[in-house]
Write a structure and sequence with these properties.
The complex is a heterodimer of chains A (576) and B (149). Chain A folds into three domains: 3-177, Beta-Lactamase, CATH 3.30.450; 185-337, 2-Layer Sandwich (Beta-Lactamase), CATH 3.30.450.40; 418-576, Histidine kinase-like ATPase, C-terminal domain (Heat Shock Protein 90). In chain A, 43% of the residues lie in helices and 20% in strands. Chain A is elongated, with a radius of gyration of 36 Å. Chain A is an alpha+beta fold and 576 residues long. In chain A, the strands form four sheets. A six-stranded antiparallel beta sheet of chain A has the order 3-2-1-6-5-4, with helices on both faces. Helices cover 54% and strands 17% of the residues of chain B. In chain B, helix 2 packs parallel to helix 3 (62-73). Chain B is elongated and about 60 Å long. The chains are: A alpha+beta (576), B alpha/beta (149). The A-B interface holds A 357, 360-369, 371-373, 375-376, 379, 396, 399-400 and B 10, 12-13, 15-17, 19-20, 23, 56, 82, 84-87, 105-106, 111-114.
Chain lengths: 576, 149
């Protein structure tokens, strides 16, 4: 051990730097700036910088700087990397992955000048666990022979610690991507938005040039392209593989991932649908999207072949693990969405059964009454009675037919309630429109509106949802005593991606024993109407993947609580 | 005059049935749900001769509730159950509990009101004969006990 590292001062520097590296600060830039400054000062250097490898362009980009002389063009310096001499010490270190130290740069074959005052220079590579150069730490001094072996060893330790932190950050990013994606489970997002989200999350955690998602069609006979970033994006829903065809088809059939740095050398490769020209592909991961029962598709990530031999851009085992995990999670989400869809279908069928039975019962009753009137009419006519005696019967017949028509029209509404044409809409606007539409102008019933600002838009059929809100406003109003009130509120939902709408009143409320039945078709305690109102309201809310509950206290008033999912974030709104 | 109670939650149905049976010379009364029917059955003096009740009103078991109330009040009150579409199974249950018969409200091409009147007349006859039988039996029992004395 040399003098520098063994001194208490040296240990204190290590302590400071390692504290910085393990700090909870998530801003990597802050940490790197602080480390660089500490390193430079403790080594008695005048200037220092860290350049990071730009894998795509095969260049080193100056990222963090410390010391004197840095100005705008300098800090944006990009260093071409080559193994030839005279192309820069930093580039040389990046290529060889070995430290380089010089006591007089003017005698060094690799040196090129960016600052006129540099005499001594020391540069060490920051390598990842696969030995690949991620960046270079460079420290300079205007004094000759300013750095010794001990400085080199010290800087190597700093570089290794930095590599650890960079790796931890990458893992954290991947973990965050998985967690963020996990939240999608049960959210029932639109599939297109969901696939876009996968691609975005994968791109944040792995640098790649292209990413595509193939999903099996309904009868499981072909893998169809559903999402892609680049060139292949023009062939969405057109490009497809048969199971077993090409690497993608093999992955789907075997349910196992494939990682290769040269797809063309793989005997399974067919090159049918490529994101990049075949000779440009430098790395490929194809991971199966596994569902509960079978493989649902394939997630494919590609990296461009580097033009610079020293820049490795094949994917690592960790990359493969991450892509596979993301693909599995996507499988779980697609499955869960399917399951929810099927469950809702079952519920809907049950509602249908009940609706049909109750309709038949009601129609039967009306027809029975109409037949009674006809029977009486025949009797009255046979008796030779005057027209006046017939009028009440004719009126009753007309009422009977009218009620039959009412049933039919409500029946039709029940049928169409769940056929939605959706787009992102403002919940506050919908609520305001519904209140304007349904709340009478001249009344002594008080209206209170509390609309929370900044609510996310909901993916809704505006006409149907407005009708559903109007029905609730009208319902509340109709049950109000004189000088009662109707309160309508919007607020954030129980989760960030939900919104809640509340309709409260000061009417009689719903008796406990009726709470379960109020959303059933034809349930009504009102004499007018037929009670289909609330069942249609529920049908519309259900169709929006929302929930509706009555949470009021009997005797104090009714309280209808609707929770709706926010519209799935689109790529555009993410960027905004 | 025979007294008949018509129980149905539909105004139009009650009106039509009542009108039809009054035409036949019966005296009719109405109840619009099972609890009202129970009250009327318990307070009627003399008891109703026949009760015509809808099968399903507040609940699936409404008809059965009215039936039990009627026979508890007077074992010889005859009960006819009206069923709308799809409730025949429940009506059969009522028959097992002692209903006189059931009439489906909707039989295509049939004047169910005439059918109902026919059933009511049959029910009235059975009630009359049941009461007659009981009175005769009563007399016989009395005469036997007098002979014993």
């Amino acid at each position: 051990m040399t003098k520098f590292a063994c001194t208490c001062e040296g240990l204190a520097v290590f302590d400071r730097i390692s504290s910085l590296l393990i700090s909870a600060d998530r801003d990597l830039d802050n940490i790197m700036d602080a480390i660089l400054l500490t390193t430079m000062e403790s080594m008695g250097a005048g200037r220092a910088f860290i350049a990071m490898v730009d894998y795509e362009h095969g260049e080193l980009a100056v990222r963090y700087t410390s010391g004197s002389g840095w100005n705008e063009p300098n800090t944006r310096l990009r260093l071409k990397v080559s193994q030839e001499s005279g192309r820069g010490i930093t580039g040389h270190v990046a290529v060889t992955g070995k430290p380089h130290r010089t006591g007089n740069v003017h005698d060094d074959p690799y040196y090129i000048s960016h600052f006129s005052d540099v005499v001594s220079e020391i540069a060490v590579p920051i390598c990842d666990r696969h030995g690949r150069t991620q960046g270079v730490i460079n420290v300079e001094s205007s004094k000759p022979d300013a750095f010794g072996e001990e400085h080199e060893a010290f800087l190597c330790v700093i570089a290794n610690l930095t590599a650890l932190r960079l790796n931890e950050d990458l893992q954290a990013k991947r973990q965050a991507a998985l967690v963020s994606f996990g939240r999608e489970i049960g959210r029932f997002a639109r599939t297109t938005a969901l696939l876009q989200k996968v691609i975005r999350l994968v791109s944040e955690a792995i640098s790649f040039q292209d990413c595509s998602i193939f999903l099996f069609n309904k009868d499981h006979t072909a893998l169809v392209l559903e999402a892609s970033l680049g060139e292949l994006g023009k062939h969405i829903r057109e490009a497809h593989y048969a199971p077993g065809e090409g690497i993608t088809g093999w992955v789907a059939e075997q349910g196992r991932p494939v990682r290769t740095s040269d797809p063309r050398a793989d005997p399974r490769w067919r090159g049918l649908h490529e994101e990049l020209p075949p000779d440009k592909v430098g790395g490929l991961i194809a991971a199966p999207i596994v569902g509960y029962e079978r493989v649902l598709g394939v997630l494919r990530v590609l990296r461009r072949r580097s033009e610079y031999a020293w820049v490795p851009n094949n994917f690592t085992e960790e990359d493969e693990e991450f892509v596979t995990a993301m693909a599995s999670m996507l499988g779980a989400i697609i499955d869960s969405a399917e399951l929810v869809k099927r469950l809702m279908e079952v519920e809907r069928m049950a509602a249908w059964g009940e609706m049909s039975a109750r309709s038949a019962h009601m129609i039967g009753n009306r027809v029975f009454a109409i037949k009674g009137d006809l029977n009486e009419l025949r009797h009255v006519m046979a008796q030779g009675c005057a027209r006046d005696a017939m009028n009440p019967l004719i009126n009753s017949l007309e009422r009977g037919v009218f009620r039959l028509e009412e049933i039919l029209s409500e029946f039709r509404e029940f049928v169409v309630a769940t056929r939605l044409t959706t787009q992102p809409v403002s919940i506050n606007e919908l609520v305001s429109d519904a209140v304007r539409e349904a709340f009478p102008r001249n009344t002594d019933v008080r209206l209170e509106m509390e609309l929370a600002p900044d609510l996310p838009p909901v993916e809704a059929d505006a006409t149907k949802l407005r009708r559903c809100f109007s029905e609730l406003v009208e319902n509340s109003f109709n049950f109000q005593p004189n000088h009662g009130f109707v309160r309508v509120r919007t607020e954030p939902g129980p989760q960030p991606d939900r919104v809640r709408v509340l309709f409260e009143d000061h009417g009689p409320g719903i008796p406990e024993e009726n709470k379960k039945s109020i959303f059933r078709p034809f349930f009504s305690t009102r004499s007018k109407g037929m009670g289909l109102g609330l069942s249609i309201v529920k049908g519309i809310v259900d169709a929006h993947n929302g929930t509706i509950r009555e949470t009021g206290v009997h005797g104090e008033g009714a309280r209808f609580e609707i929770v709706l999912p926010a519209a799935a974030e689109t790529e555009q709104s993410q960027e905004n | 005059m025979y007294r008949i109670l018509v129980v149905d939650d539909e105004d139009a149905v009650r009106t039509a049935v009542r009108r039809r049976i009054e035409r036949e010379g019966f005296e009719a009364d109405e109840a619009e749900n099972e609890s009202q029917a129970e009250k009327k059955i318990n307070s009627a003096e003399p008891p109703y001769d026949v009760v015509v009740t809808d099968m399903v009103m507040d609940s699936e078991a409404s008809g059965a509730t009215v039936l039990k109330a009627a026979v508890s009040r007077d074992i010889f009150t005859e009960v006819i159950v009206l069923t709308a579409y799809g409730n025949v199974a429940n009506a059969v249950e009522c028959m097992k509990l002692g209903a006189f018969d059931y009439v489906e409200k909707n039989i295509p091409g049939v004047d169910v009101y005439d059918l109902l009147v026919l059933k009511i007349e049959q029910a009235v006859q059975r009630r009359r004969s049941s009461i007659g039988t009981m009175r005769r039996a009563d007399r016989i029992l009395k005469s036997i006990s007098e002979d014993d004395d």
